[in-house]
Amino acid sequence: MSTKTVIKKVNEHVEQTVTIGAWINNKRSSGKIQFLQLRDGTGYIQGVVVKSEVSEELWNDAKSLTQESSLYVTGIIREEPRSKSGYEMTVTGIEIIHLTENYPITPKEHGTDFLMDHRHLWLRSNRQRAVMVIRAEIIRAVQEFFNDNGFTKVDPPILTPSAAEDSTELFHIKYFDEDAYLTQSGQLYMEAAAMALGKVYSFGPTFRAEKSKTRRHLIEFWMIEPEMAFTDHEESLRVQEQFVAYVVQSVLKNCRTELETLERDISKLENIQAPFPRISYDEAIEFLKGKDFDIPWGNDFGAPHETAIAEAYDKPVFITNYPKDIKAFYMKPDPERPEVVLCADMIAPEGYGEIIGGSQRIDDPELMKQRFEEHNLTEEAYKWYLDLRTYGSVPHSGFGLGLERTVAWICGLDHVRETIAFPRMLYRLYP
Ligand code: 4AD
Ligand code: MG
């Protein structure tokens, strides 16, 4: 009798006969021995079929297996120090489920467009699997961090009547007889939730109809948005650095194999410990001028600016106190210098760009009304948001971490398209 198991758990079955549902990742043969590279989603193991030890039928079945054919394979698990996983299977039985013909993704190189058109199959590759496992670990660690630190998870709506970030484009949809938009950020609702629960966080999809075709932009991306009552900007920065360090260290602890598969330079990640360096917007402008960038005070930073600043540090860096005119309407002005706001963007090292945007929020109802006017936001649509300042207003701060950019950084990927199973990008909605 054999026990059904998965590749990840073969260490519990050494010298025992087990059955595994698997796909053929690759195959080699020496004439007398066939080596089946098996994968089942949990890991990889080599199955060894020895001609002199198996029936002719089994030998021929093994021979007929092609890349991505599916099967139940039965065999004895052996310790094998020479194999990467440390184990091997001596195959004693094969039950073919489905023979695949002409699998389109072969071990040779393919172009990006081809791979993106076959994303549903490309996901099966070793590297793509590693990215998905690390993404899942990041999500797990995010939730663990906030759950362990007194935050309550709240789910903001996805269909919204108005904009959260007035600086970016919205997806418009019909909501019966009304107009609605897909959410760009749950922040405004999370502020309401913070007034009810103190410390809250959300994790959900957000949508931006941005015509940006860059390595860092998706149309649909996932954001983690904590919001904290009775918390100023400075305290929020401390939460942010603890949080990001915790997530990186969790991946290092729990995803060694996957980081190796991706050939990630682990020493760069080991260094990610709080505190993180800080530089004000003013200092960043001076720094950039020193690097021969022609950028006047008041302009926003683009990717080349962010990369130049990030290169000066080996940890994520906060750029703080941006001019109010290039930031969102809800950010609280610095009381000493009202032309800048109490905000920070966290820029990842190694050129991965902005991973967090955050700020202290305006808590004065009169100033908030003034901002509605300056930004052409109708008081009618935002009345509920003003109510948060009218009834028991408190200093509060929050931030949003972009999951895909964080995955790209931790995995060391040059494009966010590989950080999510089915990326939605400008000009790509298939598959
Ligand atoms: O800086 P953003 O626009 O901030 C907000 O939306 C705030 N309401 C968050 C808050 O305070 N609760 O977006 C936050 C993060 C960015 O730093 C970036 O990591 C990511 O979301 N992001 C994107 N990721 C992928 N594709 C896009 N198009 C993105 N736009 C923003
Ligand atoms: Mg931002």
Automatic annotation (TrEMBL):
Domain Aminoacyl-transfer RNA synthetases class-II family profile: 134-431
Record field: catalytic activity: tRNA(Asn) + L-asparagine + ATP = L-asparaginyl-tRNA(Asn) + AMP + diphosphate + H(+)
A cellular component annotation (GO) from this entry: cytoplasm
Keywords, comma-separated and alphabetical: Aminoacyl-tRNA synthetase, ATP-binding, Cytoplasm, Ligase, Nucleotide-binding, Protein biosynthesis
GO molecular function: asparagine-tRNA ligase activity; ATP binding; catalytic activity, acting on a protein; nucleic acid binding; transferase activity
SUPFAM superfamilies listed in its UniProt record: Class II aaRS and biotin synthetases (SSF55681), Nucleic acid-binding proteins (SSF50249)
Pfam families, per the entry: tRNA-synt_2, tRNA_anti-codon
Subcellular location: Cytoplasm
Gene3D superfamilies: Bira Bifunctional Protein, Domain 2, Nucleic acid-binding proteins
Principal place of residence: cytoplasm
Gene Ontology biological process terms in this record: asparaginyl-tRNA aminoacylation
EC number: 6.1.1.22
Keyword rRNA-binding: no
Family matches, as PANTHER family: ASPARAGINE--TRNA LIGASE, MITOCHONDRIAL-RELATED, ASPARTYL/LYSYL-TRNA SYNTHETASE
Assigned protein family: Belongs to the class-II aminoacyl-tRNA synthetase family.
HAMAP family: Asn_tRNA_synth
Assembly mode: Homodimer.
Protein name stated in the entry: Asparagine--tRNA ligase
Source organism of the structure: Paenibacillus nuruki
